[in-house]
Amino acid sequence: MDRLDEIAAFAAVADGRSFTQAAKRLGVSGAQVSKLVARLEDRLGARLLNRTTRDVSLTDTGRAYLERARAVLEDFEALEGSVRDETGPSGLLRISAPVAFGAKQLGPALLDFAEAYPEVSLEVSYADRTVNLVDEGFDVAVRIGHLTDSSLIARKLAPVRMVTCASPDYLQAHGVPLTPADLQSHEAIIDLNMREPLVWSFAQDGESMDTRVHGRLRFASAEACLEAAERGLGVARSPDFVAADRLRDGRLSTLLCNYEAETVHVHAVYPHARHLAAKVRVFVDFLAKRFAGEPMWRQGWG
Fold first, then answer.
1. Which of 19, 168, 172, 194 has its CA at 20 to 30 Å from residue 129's CA atom?
2. Is the pTM for the entire model greater than 0.70?
């Protein structure tokens, strides 16, 4: 087991290129990680890592050893996982999700999952940054939009539309924009979480069109943008699952419905593994079933 601990410590340092990150991932001290890696190098009689004050990188020998080491660790995880599966999913499941989707949609699903699987403990982090699942020790992440990390397995959960909206009072006072270009004469409420906050993308007949907007209110929160729009302070653009309640009860009205941009999707993503832990498998299956079909947040307005 000591040798396996050495290999696991080495792989964690190689993945995160940091002894500190490896220690966080493994739940031990940095000194312990350093000791395990040094012991492994001494036993092998070879240097596996190049260490500087700013960086850690693999030597050629370390790169070759890491490939074989991963196979050993995955085989061991598969062995233990096969035993755990016989008794059902259990253990700690660490989840990352965007703030707005977590608060509006994922939260209730997590509570239902916790009731259905009492042997699984949940540790949930809501953040609007893209976490590194491996380096930061997450089992699953919920992500919205186009995925760029090909090293992860992704399962599509639900479609998401961007909606442009304003309060009835604002529209009565300032008029209704009929085309995306009309937004240039309106006060936009800017969501800083968007990839390009000042450029709103639309489409018609398969052709995309971008409109540059301006506004004095800027929030790194879709919910805050919609609150401002409800107060009549401008036009907001938001994922439909955040705006749904306000659209359903008439506090906000949808605009430019004939110019809807491309639909994006909510995904559950998780790292590749030869043997997928039961707790991850049942959680992803649970979410896929929960969000199957037409999104529940569109009922009554969409």
1. 19
2. no
